Amino acid sequence: MKSIAINHFPRIVYDGKEKLLFNPVLRKRFKNRPEERVRLKWVEYLLHQTGVKKSRIGFETPIQLRQEKNTVRADLILYDKAMKPEILVECKASSITLNASAAEQAARYNSTIGARYICLTNGINDFWFEQQAGKIDATASPIVETTPLNPIEYSPSWWIERGFCSSGSSSELLDRLNPICSHFWSNAMEWPSRYLDFASTFLPINLNHYYRVPELSQDMKLAITFMGSPDTGSYLVAILNRSGQNSGFLAINLDDLFKLKPRSAVLFKNREEKHFAAHKKLPLFGERFNPSIIENLPNFLMRFFD
Fold it and tell me: pTM for the whole thing?
């Protein structure tokens, strides 16, 4: 099943231009690693959509397995009110396929932990298991009581803390971006979401981030995201991929777009750099928020690539 944490994102902090992950329970910074991102997506889900208290979340709990010398660590253990292990959550990188081998590893860990439920997740999909009397039921459903996350609960600070816009942008722009980001990352949008890594960047901002990736045709995809850091302002970034190769990079400076500046967008394509007045091709900021603009965003962005 689709992960119950899929539309949550870890909080980030910056060390220079390097993105670090912030654990709000432990109040610590961590390296931006794939499994850590998945673990913290789950933490965000637990804190914002369930009644699980911080004191009942265990991180990387050491486990001594039978007939093994070294200890291993369980990603997340959720404890019941009596502080007995109730759910073991084993996190894999989003690029890892959840298979029988991963399930066997989680079950081996749980032979020592003794939780009734096991969740195997890569942040995109979850597989749930129930273990009782030495038997495992692979048809179990989530047993964490989940409450709806109303878009009204989002705020500009929510998106700033997760790297989707900049604290350096004006309050007027951030108020406009709030419903845009909320709709873009809502369940109403069915585009796949992926974390993409890039070895280099053509922008003053780190491109490594979460993207929506709608498929435009059988061999063409467009990765789209909003991003920002304290020192760079807010951006809309789109990366065109043809037949598995990135063929164009578009960056729209949202601060400049909001002010209708003439060179608010830059396109890198075929080793050429072109500048645009983005507001002439993308009506992102109308008098009122218009969800259809976001739902048709790929079509608007392709105007820059054509």
Answer: 0.90
